[in-house]
Amino acid sequence: MTDYAVKAATTLLYKTIPDAVEDNPAADPLTIARKIVDRQTSDECRVLLEQLVSHRVRTCQQARSHARHQLSNHD
User: Tens digits of per-residue pLDDT, 15-24?
Assistant: First the structure.
């Protein structure tokens, strides 16, 4: 992960999201998310989306590997 990706993700997780929730704690989560995304630059959005997709791919790979391992133990 590049330094830019780390900074963008860290800022989003530890500053932007908590501040947005503090500003409007009763808002629907998707509404808050949309407002946050609207304020991001295209580079920030791209980097964050890449990280999100990468994390999900890794999770799917681990689940698939675990399932194959379970099947091979039952054979």
Answer: 999 999 999 9
Q: Which helix (H) or strand (E) holds 40?
A: none
Q: What angle do CA 8, 27, 46 make, to 5 degrees?
A: 25
Q: How many residues does the chain have?
A: 75
Q: Which residues contact 33 (CB under 8 A, 6 or more apart)?
A: none
* Report field, pTM of the whole predicted structure over 0.70: no
As a whole number of angstroms, the distance between CA 55 and CA 31 comes to 23
Q: For residues 10 and 3, is the Cβ–Cβ distance under 8 A?
A: no
- The per-residue pLDDT for 60 is 93
Place of tokens 């530890």: 14
H helices present in the chain, as ranges: 3-11, 17-23, 29-39, 42-74
